[in-house]
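FW: tagging you since you asked about this chain on Friday. Here's the raw sequence from the shared folder, copied in full. Didn't touch anything.
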Amino acid sequence: MKTDLSMFALTDKVAIITGGGRGIGRAIALGLARVGADVVVAARTAAEIEDTAAKVRNEGRKALAILADVQDVDQVTSLLDKTLDSFSRVDILVNNAGGTYPARVVDMSASVWEAQLKENLSSVFIWSKIIGEVMAKQKAGNIINMSSVAGLGPYPSIAPYAASKAGIISLTQTLAVEWAPYNIRVNAIAPGFIMTPAITKTAPESSDLRQSQLKRIPLGRFGKPEDIVGVAIFLASDASAYVTGETIVVNGGLTTTVFDY
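HL: got it, structure written out here
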């Protein structure tokens, strides 16, 4: 018996990806395009999102590259207007953008704490609310939030990042309940150690830090941005039509125990 793979198709769906210029966001943008989606790529670096958009077009799909700061309500609203002008609808939102700045709490200022929560958590609220209102009018939509294994347990030296990623899991669950009547599904992905260009730049795989982390991964390797794509396609497609409010961990078997930075 043949397996029906059409449930994974995203033919002519419109997806917005934040942080889509590089790393996980870029990989997801290209992955969704390969299964039929048109893509709006959002980030703060023009050259990177233009390159991602060009690669989406090479897959035979339409693409927009729009500069946007995920923390700026006006820029998010402007991006939505441009998206609707071009595509008339939004089917998928991937809240991927975020970042961290390692520091222990004893050395951390309140402004650093607040800045990281604003970048990683408040931005997810802003995008979900603004884009979600359009989805509610459509009576259909799908939101995928990027959390982290750091949101599942204690992670010294990145307290605000971990707290924001835990907040994303909670927000995902709440939005899933509030928006279910509008046929909007909301789920999250919690990656482990994914070797994006930015992560590799801070500490290469050969460093003592990375090697100590590697010992904790049962599959014996670090993740790649492409390792997140299959889960994103699953959550964005009808293959997960009865899944909402969930967080899928993609970490090679990594256990969330305390480790030293």
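FW: The longest helix spans residues 110-138.
HL: agreed, and The beta strands are 14-18, 38-43, 63-67, 92-95, 141-146, 184-191, 247-250.
FW: great, closing this out.
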